[in-house]
Amino acid sequence: MRKRTVALFGVLVAAAVIWALNSSLLADSTKRQPMLIAHRGLGQTFSPVGIGNDTCTADRIYPPEHPHLENTIEGFRAAFAAGADIVELDVHPTTDGDFAVFHDWTLDCRTNGKGVTREKSLEELKALDIGYGYTADGGKSFPFRGMGIGKMPSLGEVLSAFPDKRFLINIKSDDIAEGRLLARKIGALSPEQQKLIMVYGGGKAIDAYKAALPDAVVLGTDRVVPCLLRYAALGWSGYVPEDCRKTLFMLPANYAPFAWGFPNRLSERLEANGSTLVILGDNDGSKYSTGVDDIATFNKLPARFDGAIWTNRVDRIGPALAAPQ
């Protein structure tokens, strides 16, 4: 009986220690506004049902509620105006040594062009209509056709237009040369502007970028699963694994409550290790995660949340976040 009592006491003490290490009730009581990450700025959204790596999303958009296209200077400006703290954008290298801001690997879906994006010069890409392929009614009408001519910006144009804004740049390949080229472009910026840039993408490209700019905040996509698994095993102790440091710690909203220390103890310990907690939309078990794009999903977040919110509809979530609580 005495041994059983001692064992029970030990279990209770261990449980109390784990609770104390992970309870947000014991986190810093200073409430901070969550950051908003606008995915591709403000653009047209679409149904995520049946999305695959090669799905053309321009021909399945919802009926437009605003005039902006993703990955454009106008869309970025609208995103910042709606409350975005960080804008995510996609880049591809061009044949003349520049970077074009565009999502797709090929041009056939969104534009009136054909072929692989990175096999074109910046001049060729700027001649295209990037609104050409958008339709919400199966091709009966194309509301943005003719409106996107010359609207594909270079990375330099974007950074010059918003010198004091924060960006998260997505490298679309696993190419070492691409990582090095991007590092040269970012390394040519002022130290102050470099601090505003984060980069994520394929492991080899990210490793090359990080080797050139050791202080940069990066997320190698091949680190995501090891980070989450190691944190699941060890995070109860407050330990943040190496793979989870100086990066973005991304969690779908429906998985987040099961992470050790969520929300604010987790946010604190990540911040102490140079990382940012980022909440995505719900994930249904597929590889595709949505953003926090509607008020119902936004309302599922804790009343106090100190991380960042990933959204495709900053025009909805920005005003909701700014509204008096």
From TrEMBL:
<dbReference type="Pfam" id="PF03009">
    <property type="entry name" value="GDPD"/>
</dbReference>
<protein>
    <submittedName>
        <fullName>Glycerophosphodiester phosphodiesterase</fullName>
    </submittedName>
</protein>
<dbReference type="InterPro" id="IPR017946">
    <property type="entry name" value="PLC-like_Pdiesterase_TIM-brl"/>
</dbReference>
<dbReference type="InterPro" id="IPR030395">
    <property type="entry name" value="GP_PDE_dom"/>
</dbReference>
<feature type="domain" description="GP-PDE">
    <location>
        <begin position="54"/>
        <end position="321"/>
    </location>
</feature>
